[in-house]
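Q: Structure tokens for this one, please.
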Amino acid sequence: MICATPQTAQQWSNMPAAQTELFGTTWARRRVDLSDVSEFRLTVNQSVAGAAGAFVRLRYSVDGGTNWADAETGGPVADLDVGTGTGMKTGAWGSLVEEARGDVLLRLDGQDGNGVADPSFRYIGIELR
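A: Here is the predicted structure, written as tokens:
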């Protein structure tokens, strides 16, 4: 789990177009051992939609957060649309890159917001298998 706010939704104010860490801050990072994991997918419970085309993507770091890379092999299959609709959304399973199969730091990045829309989430999670 990255974020759970059962009482009120967590708002991403003015989600930017540029690739940006979730909520523009580092508090949602998590250390996870992915040694036995080959796939992942993202799940959100979204209460307010963002700009059309906005999405979130899983990234990882093997050096404590200095450098980050996309966690998925072969493209944006597991990117999760946060620009349209609300409610529970579950993305497609994506294949985890070999370099992320160990003790890593995870974060979510958002991209393609419009700098005005404020997507809001009650829950954001990562499923692993």
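A few notes: The chain has a mean pLDDT of 94. The chain has one domain: 3-128.
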